[in-house]
Amino acid sequence: MQTTDCTLSGPRLPPHDPGTPTLSVVDMHTGGEPLRIVLGGCPEVVGPTLLAKRRYVRQHLDYVRRRLLYEPRGHRDMYGAVLVPSELPDAHFGVLFLHNEGYSSMCGHAVLALGRFALDFGLVPAPPAGAHEARVNIHCPCGLVAAFVECEGGLSRGRVRFHSVPAFALATDVLVDVPGRGQVVVDVAYGGAFYAFVSAEKLGLDVCSSKTRDLVDAASAVTEAVKAQFKITHPDSEDLAFLYGTILTDGKDTYSEEPTTNICVFADEQVDRSPTGSGVTARIALQCHKGLLEPGQTRAFKSSATGSVFTGKAVREAKCGDYNAVIVEVSGQAHYTGVASFTVEGGDPLRDGFLLK
User: Which residues contact 288 (CB under 8 A, 6 or more apart)?
Assistant: First the structure.
């Protein structure tokens, strides 16, 4: 089959407003969950700490998030990352995570992708000759996360793993009234972000076979009920004290060599296509807290949306305030999908994007 070569010569852009910076990005996905990494065009992010920078972007630069993630350039389940300087001496860089509702405190699938990106785009020193793994220290809003990137010849190859911030069970067997579904018992755990966990069976659903819309509706109802009836606290910062979403599981929490399946619904009914890296972190912490998983035991976690798999294990004990915690290692595979330059044309009434629901 013959194809027509329509490639434009040089870095030519379509007609656009010259006073509006072009946003250049690299797109990746991890287990099917997208990540749009900003290369250029974002104004300087001001603030003495990463959490202050997160507040600054929310207050002054939110149009960047909307332009990148919303239609017509994105979609309601798009995810993004803006790289910023970090105040931590051990960090190679800081990152702000973007989603359809705002700004997360942690994102495991993004860390797995950013590990590859940082090595391939020279954000970290090249590993020594013959090295098969490179370390990338990423300052996330929840704290410093170490990613370990399989490499060959100084470039990323294969899987990435990361070590989490201290993860812990905040509360177990929390009884909440869910409108239309009655009383439901949930667990709440932290893996850089807080999630409510409940077996889909308790809501009359099957995480593997029920319609995605039904799973989203049920998870969203649980999230709103927990937010209204249970107070989330974090021992280190109020900026981290919020419920990010609900993860519906297959109920198979006892250790097994077979994968356990879940689906994460977070932010404004956003569906994670991957098994959810920070969710896997929190779920392992929860299983360790309940005595269902021993340190060093590796479990596989499967996404009911795409079938993609992350693995995870608790690598050591830790503390977070007064909570007994664990450091969790999560492993997965990220892939590049392309690059893009996003422009704004003068007079476009939808320049900052929109969402359909």
Answer: 294, 295, 314, 326
The CA–CA distances, whole Å, from 351 to 17, 20, 22, 271 equal: 11, 11, 12, 25
In 3-state terms, the chain is what percent helix, strand and coil (to 5)?
Answer: 20, 40, 40
Tokens 């999630």 found at: 195
Please report which confidence band the pLDDT of residue 150 belongs to, taking 50, 70 and 90 as the band edges. very high
In 10 A of CB 111, how many CB atoms? Answer: 31
Catalytic residue among 107, 140, 142, 151: 107
What is the distance between the alpha carbons of residues 124 and 103, in angstroms, rounded to a whole number?
Answer: 25
- Tokens for 188, please give them: 């709440």
Phi first, then psi: give them for residue 285, nearest 5 degrees.
-60, -40
Quick one: tokens of 330? 């999560």
Could you check whether the bond before residue 72 is cis, i.e. omega within 30 degrees of 0?
Answer: yes
Are residues 339 and 26 in contact, defined by beta-carbon separation less than 8 angstroms? Answer: yes
Tens digits of per-residue pLDDT, 338-350? 999 999 999 999 9
Active site residue 142: no
Give the contacts of 62 (CB within 8 A, at least 6 positions apart): none
160-180: burial string, b at 16+ Cβ within 10 Å, e else? bbbbbbbbbbbeeebebebee
Structure tokens at 14: 């379509």
The label of the residue with tokens 């899987």 reads 159
Tell me the average pLDDT across 282-286: 98
117 band by pLDDT with thresholds 50, 70 and 90: very high
Strands (E), 154-202: 155-163, 168-178, 182-190, 194-199
pLDDT at residue 318 above 80?
A: yes
DSSP, residue by residue, 311-340: EEEEEEEEEETTEEEEEEEEEE-EEEEEEE
User: What is the average pLDDT score of the chain?
Assistant: 96
